[in-house]
Amino acid sequence: MENRVNTFDSQAGKTKKPFTWKKGILVFLIILAVIIAAGILIRGHMKSSDAVIGDGGTLKLSDPYIGVLSVEGTISESDTSGLLSSSSYHHSWILSRIDDMIKDSNNKGMILYVNSPGGSVYASDELYLAIRHYQKKTGRPVYSYMASEAASGGYYISSNCNRIVANRNCWTGSIGVTLGTMYDITGLLKKYGIRTVTITSGKNKAMGSSTVKMTGEQKKILQGLVDEAYEQFTGIVAEGRNMSLKKVRKLADGRIYTAKQAKKLGLVDQIGTYDEAVADMKARYKMSSAVKAKQIEYDENTGFLQSLLSESLSRVLGKGNSSGASELEALKSVMQENQTFTITYLSQVRK
């Protein structure tokens, strides 16, 4: 319970409440919101003439253009973003913009600006399929420009592009699958004399639980899930890069490749800059000088600030005046947070 001390002002004859830590944080959040709002407004005024703001509605330009979509951050079906979330990737928004370009006759091609370590199997594959649909429906070219990192799921979505151009400092590859780390805390439970009971409908329903030792059969079941996702990944790379499956599997041991290594192995077509990627598409597909590359950017509207403040306040004001978690509280946290795991095309190595 928070300690409060009332002081008496003899001149005013009134009691005053001290400036508590909660009020201080609230003031800080309000100031922060104002700074962020100002930053967004400034950013809006500094937009290049080659940038287009996508507001969640339909997108259509009056002049011929190459649509440039940024795939940055972890590829996830979740569209959460903000200061408390490091995500800058907006899955449903990107899918909608691809659909818009399919319908737009002024669109002449698409470039994916990829700066991502990958992400979930589902979201990576859904984006890959949307790109394939664009190619088949329109016959227009799709390039992947790999910036700082295009690993695992970042490479997955790029593999079937008509051409892949990698920045010379790019890390790519990491062709493989990972299953979220599972913890065995049975030893800790025994140390504190804690016994757990899990009621299930079958012996494998609770596999992956941190409170029960995993059996050999359960390891095989989970490995089977990983193996199937791996086969899908390698098959897509083999098809997109016109390689034999045998060669892809030899490369696909999960390792990271530099841009030079990737080009030598046939995983990328060219090492170059973003401008060179744009110029290459225009020259290779004989586009007129009137065709410009247009960056289609997500509109960070006021909903961002609203979600930021509501989430921040709920977290701060709901925590109380805790001085730190004990060992038992830390154990409880592990038990609560590590009961789920996800199969991903996600690189564990980050730039």
Describe it:
This protein is an alpha/beta fold and 351 residues long. The protein has a single domain (49-299, 329-346), classed as 2-enoyl-CoA Hydratase, Chain A, domain 1, CATH 3.90.226.10. The chain is built from eleven helices and 14 strands. Strands 3, 4, 5, 7, 8, 9, 11, 12 and 13 form a nine-stranded mixed beta sheet that branches. The protein has a three-stranded antiparallel beta sheet with strand order 6-14-10. The chain has a two-stranded antiparallel sheet with strand order 1-2. A hairpin with a 4-residue loop joins strand 1 and strand 2. Helix 1 runs antiparallel to helix 10, helix 2 (91-103) packs parallel to helix 3 (121-138) and helix 6 (216-240) crosses helix 7. It is globular and about 75 Å long. It starts with 6 loop residues before the first strand and ends in a 5-residue tail after the last strand. Residues 1-13, 42-49, 81-86 and 302-324 have low confidence and may be disordered. GO terms for molecular function: serine-type peptidase activity. It comes from Hornefia butyriciproducens. Residues 135-285 form the Peptidase S49 domain. InterPro entries: ClpP/crotonase-like_dom_sf (IPR029045), Pept_S49_SppA (IPR004635), Peptidase_S49 (IPR002142), S49_SppA_C (IPR047272). This is Signal peptide peptidase SppA.
